[in-house]
Amino acid sequence: MSDHQDATVCSKVEVQVTHSDKAGFITPKEVERLLHEANLYPVGQLMDSINGIQIEDELKKNPFVKGVTCYKTPGGKASIIVEQRLPVMRILPENQNSFYIDEQGKAMETHHYNSDLVVATGKMDSAFIQNKLVFLGLYIHNNKFWNDQITQIHVHPNQHVDLVTRVGGNILIHFGTLDSIPRKFNNLKAFYDKVMPEVGWNTYREISLEYNNQIVCKRR
Predict the structure, then answer these.
(1) Could you tell me if 68 and 55 are in contact, meaning their C-beta atoms sit under 8 angstroms apart?
(2) Better-predicted residue by pLDDT, 191 or 111
(3) What domains, with CATH codes, occur in the chain?
(4) Under a CB-based contact definition with an 8 Å cutoff, are residues 186 and 178 in contact?
(5) I need a surface site. Which of 52, 83, 129, 144 has the fewest CB within 10 A?
């Protein structure tokens, strides 16, 4: 093995953040800032002295980073691929600080970040969030129509849920328990498509999905 040391100096860093088209908290500029603060920014360093594992470990400390791959390429360039944790919902529990949850229902610290996601309020514990609420959040987050429609989820002490909509004068939807989520949304969508155009969006103030195979409404 040669003892020759590569005298090439890193002249460029390329940072790629996955899922950057979705709601996220980490950007290439944020990655560069974190590396500068840790004195690990590669530009200006000898290529042989750049420790990819150290860079990966440093970036993984960020609560919004799920995984990191760092590698060097010929010509004095370092590439960093950051897989970010995607928030699906913001949680504002009673008498507690707010936080975000990711696709697995795990808490994500908010720090100075902000994102336009559906907000869940009310009384809830971590078990309910991870085993029940996250699936409602994922369904809304992954469906463009409902993601545009639903602004708030409120959890009652009995773990029944209400939804607040963006249109129709903030219609309150009594979703009930978090079972049969796709069926309930399919029923609501059919109601929106067939009934609402006939009666008008400001006719009802409450819609209940708590009963099997029927929708019960209250007029304003």
Answers:
(1) yes
(2) 191
(3) 12-84 (3.10.20.310), 87-219 (3.40.50.11690)
(4) no
(5) 144
What is the reported pLDDT for 1?
Answer: 36
Percent of the residues in the chain that have a pLDDT greater than 90, as a whole number: 63
pTM: 0.75
CB distance 70 to 79 below 8 Å: yes
* CA distance linking residue 78 with residue 75, whole number of Å: 9
Which amino acid appears at position 49 of this protein?
S
Number of Cβ atoms within 10 Å of the Cβ of 43: 16
What are the backbone dihedrals phi and psi of residue 38, each rounded to the nearest 5 degrees, phi first?
-95, 5
SS3 of the chain = CCCCCCCCECCEEEEEECCCCCCCCCCHHHHHHHHHHCCCCCCCCEHHHCCHHHHHHHHCCCCCEEEEEEEEECCCEEEEEEEECCEEEEEEECCCCCEEEECCCCEECCCCCCCCCCEEEECCCHHHHHHHHHHHHHHHHCCHHHHHHEEEEEECCCCCEEEEECCCCCCEEEEECCCCHHHHHHHHHHHHHHCHHHHCCCCEEEEECCCCCCCEEEEC
What is the Cα 193 distance to its own chain's centre?
A: 28
Is pLDDT above 50 for 45? Answer: yes
Contact predicate 9/42, CB 8 Å:
no
